[in-house]
Every structure is written in C-alpha cells, then in structure tokens.
Amino acid sequence: MSTQLSLEQRLEEIRLTRRVRWILYGFLSLCFISAFYGSLLLIQFSVVDLYNQLPVFAERITNYTPNWMFILERNLPRESVITLAVGFAGTVIGLPLALLLGVLGSSRVTPFPLNFLFRGVMGVFRAIPSLVWFLMFIPLAGLSAVTATIAVVVSTIGNLGRLFTDELEEVEEGQIEAMKTTGASKGQTVVFGMISQVKTSFIAWTLYIFEVNVRTAVTLGLLGGSGIGEIIQVQQGLRAYGNMMAGIVVVLFLILAVEIISQRFRSYLRDDEETSGLVALLVGLPQRMVESALK
Amino acid sequence: MSAIRVENLTKRFGETVALDDVSFEIEAGEFTVVLGISGSGKSTLLRCVNGLTAPTSGRVVVDGDPVTSHRDDVAMVFQQHNILDGTSAYSNALSGALGRTNFLRSLLRFNDREDKLQALEALDMVGLLDEASQRAGRMSGGQQQRVGIARALVQNPQILLADEPVASLDPGSSQTVMRYLRGAAEERGLTAMISLHQVNLARQFGERFIGLADGRVVFDGYREDLTFDVIDDLYGGIDMEGFLSGNETDATVVQ
C-alpha cells in the first residue's frame, strides 16, 4: 500500500516538472517568434513586394547570362591565379606568426596571466574583419594585391593562431613529462612534447584557413584588391552583367578547385596513411578515377 | 657512495599524505623493485627521485647531488608509455638525446651520427631494430613500451626509473618488457628502480625490494627476505596460496 502511494507521488512529481517544462518551452517559443517577427519588420521584409517584383526580375535575369568569351578576352584564369596567390602568400606569411603567437598564447607554454597578452593580440586581429584591415592598410600599399595580402596575413594570424592555441590546450601531459625527463630544454619540450602531438591537426587547420583565405582574397578584390574580385566589381559598375557572371563562374571554379584539393589533403592526413605516401596517392589517382567512373 | 639516497622524504597533496618520512639508500647497480598497492606512494616516490614532483620535506640525493629538477642522467619509463605516437620508433629513441642536442639541431633533426647509431643500438637491444621506421602509434602496447625503454637508454642514464611499466600490458608482453629492462640494466650497469604491483613479476626479476604502504616503507630487503607473509602484509589479505595455485575454491563472492 505504501509503495502504491509513493508511486502516485512520484508520478505527480514527474507531471509537475513536465508541466513546468512545457510552460518554459511555450515562453521560449514566444520569445523566439517575436524576435523573428521584429527582425522582419526592421528590415522591411515583404513577400508581397518580392512577388510583385518577380516579372521585372525574370526580365532582367536574362541580362545575367555569362558572356563566355569574356573569360578568354580578359584572361580571367590569370586574374584568378592572382587571387589564389594573394590567399596563398597571405597564408604562408601568416603561418609562422600564427604559430608563434598561438604557441605563446597557450596556458601550457606561457603562465596564466601572461598568455592572455598573446591571446589578446590574436583576439584583436580576429575581431576586426579582413575587409576593414584592407581599408586600414590602403595608405601603406594603395589599392593593390599587396594590401589584400597584408589583410589576409593579419586575419590568418588571428584565426589560425587561435585554432593552434585551442589545439594545444588539449595535449596530454604524459609526453611533455617524458620529454622533460630526457633533459630536454623548454623549447625542445614544447616542440617534441606538445607540437608533435598536434602536428597533423595543425596542418589540417592551416589548409582550412588557406581555403578561407582564397575566399577572402576574392572579397578583397571587390574592394579593389586586384584579382578576379576586382574584375567582377568593375564589370558590375559598367553594368556589363554578362561579363560579371563570367567572372563569378570563374570564381566558382577557383573556390571549388581549392576546396577539393585541400579536402583531399586533409582526409589523407586524417586517415594518416603514412605508409601509402604522397607519391602513391598521386600515382593511384588515375586508377581511382577510373574505378569511381565505372561504378 | 650510494647511487640514490632518499632522506626523510615527505610529500603531501593537500590533506593526503602520499609519502610519509621515507628513507632508504640504493647502491649503484642494484635492480630494485618498489612494491605496494595502488595509492601506496610508488609513483610519487619515483617522481620525486626524478624531480618531476617536488617533495614537501626531505630530499633525494642522486650521485651526491640533491635532486631539484629533472636531470638527463636519470631516465624514466612510464606506465602510459608516453612516446610520441606520430613519429617513428627511431625518432622516439633519438628523442632520448634531446638533453645533449641544441634546439636548432634537434628541430632540424641534425643529430650527431653517434646519437643516431646509439638510437638504433638501443632499438636493437629491445629487439625492435627491424621496426625502427614504423610509426610508434601503430605498434602494440608491449612494443611501445620497449620504444620507451630504448628512449630511456639513449639518454645514457646512470639511473633507470620505471613507473609500473607493465601495468597496461598482457602477461606475455609484461614478461618481455621486464626481461628487456633487466637485461639493459645489467648490460649497462644501471641502477634501476621499478615500481610494480605484480608480485610474481617482482619476485622473478627483482633483486632488492622496497615495500610501501600508505606512504611508509614497510619492507626493505633482498629476495630471500621477501616471504609470503611480507607480501601478505603489503597487499593486505589476498589469499596468497589460492592466488599462486590458481585454486578457485575461495573465489566465490560473499556479500
């Protein structure tokens, strides 16, 4: 009889907590909906207006057919290589500095209050978007690819450095201790005990940041940082939408190519097929392509 | 002069007393096994000898000098191996030479030819010469531990410490690892201090024994002194005869 009662009590408790939870969910949903509705009002979003505008849009979109000839006329592949170069050079220059600040920012390397000095610097680099860095460095190198590269370098230090710091916080103490016991110096302990543990993820993050940097380089081109982005910007200004679309298609190919190559590398790192090696990977490429085509 | 002299060593972690006024001396070339249950202070003792842990009071004197920080003539083999998974067995062995290689040279892997040969020699000594270029992370637990021993040997230590080197290994690998440890210590004339909780392995390989319980030395003697009674004291009420004969009559769980 007593167990029956306690079961009843327990059921009542559960019902009560459930009811409280439902009221809470209801309240949260209400907040969410009103925030969304407020946002739509603020940006004056109207489905009716968009619908009314549709015929005009359909008429104009025909002007947006890519002008394929423009790709060769203006040598867009060369321009996209400039954009690629901005992203690549920016990553390469930023990498050692990101490594330095990232390692020094880790509390495992630099004692607690001091490491926030380095984290702070990276935080500032990150907080200001690369577009703004570009605008700030125009007095230094003008509206040029150099300025775009500098902007990419700064954002690489901020973003990649932060990823390095986070990665280093996760390393295991054991290997660090093992290196200490061999009589290794502080620097050797950091390199062999810590960085060797996160080597592959460092490379993977660098490749990821390279991808991001190529996209950033396109955007900086729109501001005058040369390369394919600038072509798109100029053609848009000239209302030569066909030419602009040709540029956008080239960008699409550029970004896709960079991502495919980078992801290929990263999955290769993840599998850590050290035995098969890079040469075997390249040699095996045609074979794998045939295999996947036949599937 | 003794190789290791532990003088009134006490270590507290907050309220917990890990080592309580521990004193003993170990002669050069002795192969000493430290026995005791988990939490008896074995690891703390070894870490104090190595300078990885600073004692609360008392001191450890190695080769005439008080231990203040880790020194490269004291090598350590860890329970969790602590080898660098991402690199080869050879690179791991070579990392034992870090203490005598300057930063830039070690970074660029410009090690002395002698050190490189020594790394291979150490791998040979633990029977892993053919696996030298294999990635350490892909090796079995026993092999990884032997890489750890090779690394310790490349350090050219006077003293070899091992903190439960076989705790995570199967019985077969445990025997192999212990055999290599003992063999290396004998061949190089090293003073060794190995903590173990496998009584059978301890009896098989140990020369001298130090028993710890609740951070105190409760036994210090040689093989002939290590009787069943002593072990029973150390490990508190395990059924030694049943344990050794494999008799299962008392193995029923009583609640």
TrEMBL record, chain A:
Signal peptide: none annotated. The keyword Disulfide bond does not apply. Residues 80-262 form the ABC transmembrane type-1 domain. Its main location: membrane. Keywords: Cell membrane, Membrane, Transmembrane, Transmembrane helix, Transport. It is a multi-pass membrane protein. SUPFAM superfamilies: MetI-like. It is found in: Cell membrane. It holds the Pfam family BPD_transp_1. The chain crosses the membrane at residues 22-45, 81-104, 141-160, 202-228, 240-261. One of its GO terms (biological process) is transmembrane transport. One of its GO terms (cellular component) is plasma membrane. PANTHER family: ABC TRANSPORT SYSTEM PERMEASE PROTEIN P69, PHOSPHONATES TRANSPORT SYSTEM PERMEASE PROTEIN. Belongs to the binding-protein-dependent transport system permease family. This is Phosphonate ABC transporter permease phne. It comes from Natrialba asiatica (strain ATCC 700177 / DSM 12278 / JCM 9576 / FERM P-10747 / NBRC 102637 / 172P1).
UniProtKB/TrEMBL annotation, chain B:
Pfam families: ABC_tran. Residues 4-239 form the ABC transporter domain. One of its GO terms (molecular function) is ABC-type phosphonate transporter activity. CDD domains: ABC_PhnC_transporter. It comes from Natrialba asiatica (strain ATCC 700177 / DSM 12278 / JCM 9576 / FERM P-10747 / NBRC 102637 / 172P1). This is Phosphate/phosphonate ABC transporter ATP-binding protein. SMART domains: AAA (SM00382). NCBIfam families: ABC_phnC (TIGR02315). Keywords: ATP-binding, Cell membrane, Membrane, Nucleotide-binding, Translocase, Transport. Coiled coil: none annotated. It comes from the Archaea. GO terms for cellular component: membrane. The keyword ATP-binding applies.
